[in-house]
Amino acid sequence: MPSKSGPIHWILDWDGTITKRDALETLVNIAASNNTHSKILNDWRQVSEAYMRDYENTLKDLLAQNLDKPSTINTERQLLYKIKDVEKRSLDRIYQSKIFAGLRDDMLDKGAAAAMEKGNVQVRDGFSDFMHHIQTRKKYEKRDEFNILSVNWSQRFIAACLEIANISSVQELLPSIHSNELEGIQQNTPSSGLIVPTSQHQDLIVSSVDKISVLNQLRSSRQIPIVYIGDSWTDFECLLSADLGICIRDEPMTSGQQTLADALGRVDVQCTHLEEMGTVDHKGLFWARNFEEIKRWVQRSDSIE
């Protein structure tokens, strides 16, 4: 558990955590809007359907081999490791379909701005105020660190969305975002459509296994308590590895949030509302509805030092 004094390293997921819903489809819409004579949306539908078939069949086969669902954290990790292949196959299909071929960084910037302005991408309630509070702590008091850790396909897209949300500029945000990128974007050339690691990493970030690897690298760079905030199964290992793990949950929960909740339930990890911290004997994870609740927790911690 983070100390009530001293700096905190905040590591946040993007899709469904900072945003109210998954923003990957918005990337596809940006590609389609910049290539009106193509069949991008139809290709995307086929890629999505192929992914779901692959995911469901792979999960069914893996569970059949083990005759039951995981019941320990270690066996859950093993299952997540094997699911990684499904994600990699999906990226291959995306490249073969050329959905993102020809996209440029300026198209991503304009598309992100339009998506934010139209409400197609929305940050969660309280996120901007939360970030401004963290930036104040980082600058004047606690020297907090902040990173985004995401399986999203475009680091540039995430930064462009956050610039519109008045968090910071694209160029200032990019180094703090650990995700993937469309080949060519970092070189300011039209993309081939291939999803590749950013210049920060040698490997793609597509699964829980990849995310925990990056989290451990970030931990080694500055050894201060980590608060990880996520919403889905790909956040499983990071949530458990952090000094404090916070699950974002809607009411009712989304399918991704429910999948994570089911996984935590299988391995007997309790998840208590963040406002109950300090009033219950609890060694598991916590959950919050939005960043307003998380900011209130930070402010309470600051005020009782």
UniProtKB/TrEMBL annotation:
InterPro entries: HAD-like_hydrolase_phosphatase, HAD-like_sf, HAD_sf. It comes from the Eukaryota. This is HAD-like protein. It comes from Byssothecium circinans. The lineage of its organism: Eukaryota, Fungi, Dikarya, Ascomycota, Pezizomycotina.
